[in-house]
Every structure is written in structure tokens, then in C-alpha cells.
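Weekly modeling sync, notes
Attendees: AB, CL, MP (scribe)

Item 1: holo prediction request
CL wants a bound-state model with zinc ion before deciding which constructs to order. AB pointed out that an apo prediction alone won't tell us much about the pocket. Agreed to run with the ligand included and paste results into these notes for async review.

Input as submitted:
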Amino acid sequence: MSEEQEVVTVVKAPVYLKYNFTAGAAPARFLAQIKKGVLTGQRCPKCSAVYVPPRGSCGGCGVATEEEVVLSNKATVQSFTIVYIPIPNNPIQPPYIIANVVPDGANVSFIHLMSECVNEDVHIGARVEAVWKPKEEWGFAMDNIRYYRPIDEPNVPVDQIGKLSVNGQEG
Amino acid sequence: MSQPEVLNQAFELGYTYTRSTGPVIGRFLTELRNRNIVGIKASDGRVVVPPMEYDPNTAEELSEFVDVGQQGEIVSFAWVKEPREAHPMDVPFAWAMIKLDGADVPMIHCVAAPSEDAIATGARVQVVWADETIGYITDIRCFELV
Ligand SMILES: [Zn+2]
């Protein structure tokens, strides 16, 4: 029987890494606020930079950050990429946009999904807002924000991205 | 500022690799599936198991496959008192360098033994085949003391 079988040319050699992730104090507070539908950052007492998600310290100054600031649902696209290749087990069908967005009131960006947009029209400096899941579905997770979508506001000049106050372009 | 609750989450990162064996290891695994072990003859006449594609001395391509025995001798070993999840056995066992009869270099595999005292350098062992062979190194389930 075995003589009939094909010659072995490949072997399956999967590697599984099992983690238990502990959020730590600052991200835990951030996630507790996310669960309530509020996006918060932390301000550095020395340089005033606002970090989101907060890590509990300012990388630039090397000091602990404690002051918490509520951020806007509005944000600016700092950079983005259009994803064309499907990712295994990811329900989102390509092409779709992954963007670095800076919420108004923060000085750093985080990565999130964009939707309700024409991919070709998305650009650096574009104004967007968070679209939250229904309240019943909120958990300790960043995907309480389902995605960001474009809003009808003037572009933010490149040198102003990441410098808007929580009041956005008005403030 | 109130103390937040500690948030934990388990997650698994999986790399689902499939690796190409190349023709020589492919032949070795194909033979394992047939419950046969092959080595390859090097330029100095030594039989190398598992077979390698290129000569260890001259780097020339090797092609002369040689059947080796299903028994051999333990050259060295390490006793595993507390097997881990990824280990091939869930009871204490040994990793051993085993020189199969007809081979000139040892190959590593696991040895089932009732206790650490039962195993020794120089002990004779023989292959225990898996119930179902698929063309993988675990087709040799383990070696057992003769
Ligand atoms: Zn700082």
C-alpha cells in the first residue's frame, strides 16, 4: 500500500505561542474608560504631550504620567495604508484602510480601521470621527470603536497634525 | 486616582508553517512512513542518519541511501523528569543520542524507560512505530529498551 503513496515533500511545523497579557495600571484605566465609551489619554507633567493609549509614562521625558484627559471622538489621519491581502481569520474583506489617527486633544496616533469612505479619497490630514458599537457591546477593548469615518471638515495641514486641542479645529 | 482592576487576557499567537523537506529529508520521511529508516553514505564512507543533502567534508551532493537497523545503542541521554506539554510523552522519558545499527553517527530521539535508573549509556534500544505513520519524525513514536 505504502509504495503507492506519494513522496513526502512538506511537513507541517506550526509554532504556537501562548500568552497571558496583563494590561498594567495605565492601560487598565484606559480600558475601563473605553468600556464606558470614553477615550482618555494621559498628559506628561513635563512636556505636556498627551499619550493615547497611555502607557503610564512619557517616553521622551522618562517621567510617570498621571493626569488623565478626555479626548475627542474626532481625529485626524496621520498616515494610512490600503490593505489588499486578506488576513486569515479576519472577517473584514479587502481592500480596506488601516490608518494612524490622532484624536483631538492627543499628540500621538493609534492604529484603527477606516470605513464608510472611498478608499481612494482618504488622505493624510483628513478629518474623521469614531463610530462606536452599540453600548450593550462595549467591553474592555479598542474595538468598542468599530471604525473611523470621514467627516466634512477642512484638512489639517501636515505640520498641525497631532497638535489640535480637544476642541479640534475650533480650539 | 482609584486603583484599576487588573485586566488579563489569554491569547495565542500561531505561526502555521508548512516547511519544504527537500529531496533527501523527503526520502527519509517517506521511508519512515513505510516503517523503514534510511541514512546516506558520505564521501568518507560514514552512514549519516538522518540523511543530509551535502557531504559534511567535501560539500558534494550526496545520493547513496542506505537502510539502517531499527535497533541501536544509546550514546548519551538526558532524563526529563517533568515533561512539558510539547514533549512527545506525558510521563518521564529520556532524550537520547542513538546510534542505529549500520549508522556511524547518532540521531536524537526519545526513549521510553520505566525510570532514570533503567537507562544508561551503551544500552540497546529499538524503534516503536506509531500506529499510523504519516511521513513525519513522530512516525517513530519512541525507542524502548531492548
Ligand atoms: Zn514628556
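Recorded for review: The helical segments of chain B are 22-33.
Action items: CL to compare against the apo run; MP to circulate these notes.
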